Amino acid sequence: MANVYFGLGANLGDKEQNLTKAVLELSLRVGEVLKISSFYRSQPWGFESENEFLNMVVLVKTDLLPLELLLKTQEIELQLGRTSKTTSNYSDRIIDIDILFYDDLIFTHPKLKIPHPLLVERDFVLIPLSEIAPNLVHPVLEKSISELVALQSML
């Protein structure tokens, strides 16, 4: 069994309900939800939009392998109304589910990189992650989430 941290975000529709449904689906399709952060409001990152985001981080214990996990999260996104997911252009979305960490695994595949390569640049991931896992160590940077939040706040 692996401990997996997910970053969830929504900026369309009933954002709180979209995130709550995503957590429920993760519990039904992926594994046991162990921790849930508070909601965190943020401005769009990587694109312009009038729609503010609501974000959170969730810890799930799963027996799925990374690529199986990616397929499950994409199925959940589609079920909840996500129409497309691109890696080059960001846009408004009903739900977004990103795999942040999978235990201390370092995994590189054309469709998936773990740890998530942009998480250290995103307050809307780091802050809720620090709420539920302040001592979690980034396996590449070898710094705790608390240390990464402190470094980010100095920039």
Description:
This protein is α+β, with helices and mostly antiparallel strands and 155 residues long. The chain has a single domain, classed as 2-Layer Sandwich (Alpha-Beta Plaits), CATH 3.30.70. 32% of the residues lie in helices and 26% in strands. The chain contains 4 helices and 7 strands; from the N terminus they run βαβββαβββαα. The protein has helices spanning 15-29, 66-79, 123-132, 145-154, and strands spanning 2-10, 31-36, 40-42, 53-62, 96-102, 107-109, 112-114. Strands 1, 2, 3, 4 and 5 form a 5-stranded antiparallel beta sheet that branches. Helix 3 (123-132) packs antiparallel against helix 4 (145-154). The longest helix has 15 residues, at 15-29. The radius of gyration is 14 Å and the shape is globular. The relative contact order is 0.21. The mean pLDDT is 91.
Q: How is this fold's topology laid out?
A:
Layout: E1 2-10, H1 15-29, E2 31-36, E3 40-42, E4 53-62, H2 66-79, E5 96-102, E6 107-109, E7 112-114, H3 123-132, H4 145-154
Antiparallel strand pairs: 1-4, 1-5, 2-4, 3-4, 6-7
Helix pairs in contact: 1-2, 3-4
At a glance:
With 155 residues, the chain is α+β, with helices and mostly antiparallel strands. It has helices at residues 15-29, 66-79, 123-132, 145-154, and strands at residues 2-10, 31-36, 40-42, 53-62, 96-102, 107-109, 112-114.
